[in-house]
Specification:
The structure holds 2 protein chains of 2 kinds. Chain A is of the alpha/beta class. The radius of gyration of chain A is 26 Å and the shape is globular. Chain B has 13 helices and 24 strands. The chains are: A alpha/beta, B alpha+beta. Chains A and B meet through α13 of A and α5, α7 and α9 of B.
């Protein structure tokens, strides 16, 4: 339904308004609240990331995009106003390595090359982790296949639009990607098959490279088969039967053609260099090295290749290949000119990525802006979505977080999270709904109990945990 | 001598002439069904208004007439239908009836990780889509029917005259057939085959065999349909001008899928939650097939989508329950509680949105529970006549056999269920069913005629002394005046309804069907009662063990 602007209410317009009213019925207030076309956030400390900090500033949001940012922004009539006095606004956090919202397993671990599978087909829009990460300020996530294979499955870049169906979560326009993995996981060092089952090839780092090289050789041949077929078809040859389409090789051809981003799980310096050499041999670029805990040792080479690095703040020693990690990794790589992000790889860690980014100020001395970039603009660059998100600039998507404290403070708690200008998380609403949810749960449990002839007096038991209103949604 | 040699030959010829190749016309079948007329009955045709006091005539396996004033042909066997209601035979829209041998279930039951691994080891390891994991689309339910599946009889006794039966193992398990629940030979059961191609989305592999994930299954299915499209094109090209062209290989996997696509066979796709329904619809579009979705418990959320896409749905009557092995202390999320509460409202919501739907039993062990669970959908807002339609005409329409089954109309197959009241009422008993115009009486098992001297009504705590130690269960029994027992038995694995039961003097017997893996076993409790105590034996197949029971309450 179209919105009736109050400023159209001159007396001469009343008959027109009345007809509109008759035709459409009363304006649906609930729909307005959920789908405002114009919103203004006022009196906030705005951390734009690209254009410094604006004190007591405003952000005008129109149709899901940032329309104006500054000290004085005119409030259009009919706009929804959010007062953010004493609060901070940052760009939405982007998690460059996530496994939330996936149904039926994140690994197709049975085979060494699983490029035929895709996360996009198994998005679970009802996964509560979406809401929990959203409440931590995350607005976009790179949902990746697991690391069981040298070449894993296709990724899905999503926006955390809690309440939408699977299709509604997808970040439309984000370039497609794929997971690669090097080292212990793809060579199955820490996973023994049960007795009676064979070990899967590869079992060494050499083998991992062999599998990747073999796959790209096949992909080149596959591309050639199709090129030949198309050439003969164009030449007017009759009775041609097309080559078989191969869902495993199609994404690899896309990588060769620069149409699909490679996100490579890795730890050690040697395997990072191995993949850079192999990629350059086949003429493609690695978009990001993921985890990349020894990245500080080969930062120059990573920068020269043009890859990004998406690492942990200070998580290490959980397996042999993670022993040489240092918390200075993100800062050192940044200083060598690598585009660095800090990711979660965990639904829990994603709830405080702002704090993870802040740690680089202590370990490596990054500035506030540099630290904030690690979870906003840099992951956006790594995912090639920085024309849409990652900073607070006119024309970008209004993916914003309103914090009660500076987001690099451990005391900061996200108050409201907006995606495309819509509020998807509101802390006050969440708190207000908890009691009603508890009540409904209790009633439903009571209803399920087998009916007894004689009712016992009800036991009053205070609930141990609180349920978030998110549980209401699908 | 030639004369001597010709004697046995002549005898053979004579025999051949007498019994040999029978004419196909059903009227001249050796065991042609007789004419029947049921009069003075309440007739519910489903396709038209109820006839309160009418007559229905069956001849040659078909319905020939029904109405308030119908002439009864002199050759008809007349049944007085006073107090009886005649319905179309019920249809269970998806089962695996007739597809399991009568082997004891315990031998194949998987209860430990070791057993599961052992079973996995015996299966070939699949290293990718080219190994065609879990793919047997050539398997035809119609060609594999086994009449010794006891469930055919128990479903028939509950009023089901036809079921859709489909192989159920793997990603492409095979072809579904619509079959009757009675017949002399397996081929006589088949009404139509194939009626659909079945698909499952559960991974068949694991971490060592492809596909081990849902996304693996989905990509595999997509690859199979791409391969089918190329196979179809290759053969079409070759058939059009074979000379000078390389012959494509025959592929027994792709051939039935090619037929399914070309002949628009419906494809059965599982989808229980809303997200799965969206996913299944996308899959059907991608594969270019007509879907029938089955499961659909969260259909209440996406009825509008299903209506807009005009996709038929089979609603599972096995309503969601709390997992029996769940941690009793664990707090369940509201959306799970809401799902369990609202699932039975799905049929009502689908009906309102105009979605075509039918019901199926989905592994319910005791067919008596099928109607009981359909009643839950009625309690949640579905009109009773819509529930009946979902068990009859709608199922026939979805599978394209409404021209021969699903309602009481002249010319349709004479499949009837005759009950002594409303089918959804708890006390109603099915008296007889007709399949292909043949009558199957539903008799209570023989039992002593002496009237009961004790009343078993009440809640009994039953302790069975198994070799593994005592095991407790609760029997909630109701005894009618004539001693007929009904009620439920609740054990650690769930609740089952009594299939039969009686009391005579102070002796009693009742039977429950217990699901054991993919099959069910009958457990019969027999014993005697003194006041609030019972003793007896329970027999489970060849085993029997003692049990005792007490009734702690104030019942007499």
């Amino acid at each position: 339904m179209k919105r009736n602007h109050p400023n159209t209410g001159g007396t001469g317009l009343w008959p027109v308004l009345f007809i509109v009213f008759l035709a459409f019925g009363p304006p649906a207030r609930a729909a307005h609240a959920q789908n405002p076309t114009v919103t203004v956030i006022q009196n906030a400390t705005i951390l734009t990331v690209t254009q410094g900090t604006i004190e007591k500033g405003s952000i005008l949001i129109r149709d899901g995009k940032i329309a104006a940012v500054g000290r004085s922004v005119r409030v259009p009539a009919g706009a929804t106003v959010i007062d953010a006095t004493r609060h901070f606004v940052s760009p939405g956090i982007i998690d460059c390595h996530s496994h939330i919202a996936v149904d039926g397993g994140v690994n197709e671990g049975s085979i060494a090359v699983s490029s035929m599978v895709g996360i996009e087909e198994v998005i679970d829009p009802a996964d509560i982790d979406i809401y929990r990460d959203l409440a931590g300020g995350v607005t976009s996530a790179n949902v990746l296949h697991g690391s069981a294979n040298p070449i894993g499955g296709k990724n899905a870049v999503i926006k955390l639009r809690w309440g939408k169906d699977a299709k509604g979560l997808l970040f439309a326009g984000a370039p497609p990607g794929i997971k690669f993995a090097l080292g212990e996981n793809p060579k199955r060092s820490n996973f023994q098959p049960p007795p009676g089952f064979p070990r899967r090839y590869p079992n060494t780092r050499m083998g991992v490279m062999d599998v990747i090289r073999q796959a790209f050789s096949e992909a080149r041949e596959y591309r050639k088969r199709w090129q030949d077929y198309n050439r003969r078809k164009t030449a007017g040859e009759k009775n041609l039967i097309p080559p078989a389409r191969d869902l495993k090789l199609e994404p690899l051809v896309e990588i060769l053609e620069g149409k699909r981003l490679v996100h490579a799980h890795c730890y050690r310096a040697d395997e990072i260099l191995q993949l850079i050499r192999l990629a350059e041999e086949f003429g493609f670029k690695v978009a990001t090295f993921q985890h990349v805990l020894e990245g500080y040792k080969v930062a120059k080479e990573i920068a020269a290749h043009g890859a990004g690095a998406s690492t942990f703040s200070d998580w290490w020693a959980y397996k042999v290949e993670a022993y040489d990690a240092i918390p200075y990794n993100a800062a050192l790589m940044t200083q060598k000119g690598v585009v660095v992000s800090i990711n979660s790889d965990s639904a829990e860690e994603a709830r405080h990525l702002n704090q993870e980014a802040a740690k680089t100020m202590k370990f490596g001395g990054l500035s506030e802006t540099e630290a904030l970039k690690l979870v906003t603009l840099n992951p956006a660059k790594q995912l090639r979505i920085d024309n849409r998100v990652g900073s607070i600039e006119v024309g970008k998507d209004a993916d914003l977080v309103i914090w009660d404290k500076h987001p690099l403070s451990v005391y900061a708690v996200a108050q409201k999270v907006l995606i495309d200008g819509q509020v998807y998380f509101d802390r006050q609403k969440d708190i207000a709904q908890r009691a009603a949810i508890e009540k409904e749960k209790k009633a439903l449990l009571e209803k399920e109990k087998p009916k007894k002839e004689e009712k016992k007096p009800e036991e009053k038991k205070p609930s141990a945990t609180t349920q978030s209103p998110a549980e209401v949604q699908p | 001598m030639p004369a001597r040699a010709s004697r046995p030959f002549l005898a053979l010829l004579l025999t051949l002439l007498l019994i040999g190749p029978a004419p196909v016309s059903p009227a001249e079948r050796p065991h042609a069904p007789p004419f029947y007329a049921i009069r003075n009955a309440r007739i519910v045709p489903v396709s038209g208004p109820v006839i309160e006091n009418g007559t229905i005539v069956l001849a040659n396996g078909l319905i020939t007439a029904l109405g308030a004033n119908v002439a009864i042909p002199p050759e008809a066997w007349v049944i007085d239908g006073k107090g009886l209601t005649v319905y179309p035979g019920l249809i269970d829209a998806l089962t695996n009836l007739g597809l399991q041998a009568a082997a004891p279930a315990a031998a194949t039951a998987v209860t430990t990780i070791e057993q599961a691994l052992e079973q996995a080891r015996r299966q070939p390891i699949s290293q990718g889509p080219e190994d065609r994991p879990g793919t047997t689309p050539w398997e035809s339910a119609a060609d594999n029917l086994k009449l010794d599946d006891k469930r055919l009889e128990s479903w028939r006794k509950a009023g089901f005259t036809a079921v859709v039966s489909a192989p159920d193992r793997g990603i492409f398990p095979g072809q579904a057939a619509l079959i009757h629940t009675a017949g002399e030979r397996a081929n006589e059961l088949v009404v139509k085959t194939p009626v659909a191609l079945r698909m499952n989305l559960a991974p068949v592999g694991g971490f060592f065999s492809f596909p081990g994930s849902l996304m693996g299954v989905l990509s595999y299915i997509q690859q199979v349909f791409l391969d089918t499209a190329r196979y179809t094109q290759a053969w079409a090209t070759y058939e059009a001008s074979a000379r000078g062209l390389e012959r494509p290989n025959y592929d027994r996997t792709l051939e039935p899928i090619r037929q399914a696509v070309a002949n628009r066979w419906p494809v059965l796709i599982p989808a229980t939650w809303a997200k799965e329904i969206h996913r299944a619809l996308a899959l059907a579009v991608q594969a270019g097939v007509n879907p029938i979705l089955y499961g659909a418990h969260q259909g209440y959320e996406v009825a509008d989508v299903l209506a807009a896409r005009n996709v038929p749905v089979l609603v599972s009557l096995k309503w969601p329950e709390k997992d029996k092995d769940a941690d009793p202390e664990a707090e369940e999320p509201l959306r799970v509680l809401r799902f369990r509460d609202r699932a039975p409202s799905t049929p009502a919501v689908l009906a309102k949105a105009g979605v075509k739907f039918a019901f199926y039993s989905d592994g319910i062990a005791n067919p008596a529970d099928i109607l009981k669970n359909a009643k839950k959908a009625v309690d949640a807002g579905l009109a009773a006549d819509a529930a009946l339609r979902a068990l009859t005409l709608s199922a026939a329409e979805i599978y394209g056999v409404a021209d021969r089954l699903g309602s009481l109309e002249p010319g349709k197959i004479a499949n009837l269920v005759v009950a002594d009241g409303d089918l959804f009422a708890e006390k109603t008993k099915v008296k007889m069913v007709f399949i292909d115009g043949r009558k199957y009486e539903v008799r209570e098992p023989s039992r002593p005629t002496e009237p009961p001297t004790v009343n078993l009504t009440g809640k009994w705590t039953i302790t069975v002394n198994t070799p593994q130690g005592p095991q407790e269960s609760t029997a909630d029994l109701k005894m009618a005046e004539d001693g007929t027992l009904s009620g439920t038995l609740t054990g650690p694995r769930g609740t089952a309804s009594l299939t039969t039961g009686w009391v005579s003097g102070n002796k009693f017997s009742f039977t429950v069907s217990i699901p054991m893996g993919p099959r069910t076993l009958d457990a019969t409790y027999t014993g005697s009662v003194e006041g609030n105590k019972m003793t007896g034996t329970v027999s489970l197949g060849p085993m029997s063990v003692d049990f005792t029971g007490t009734r702690p309450q104030e019942e007499n």
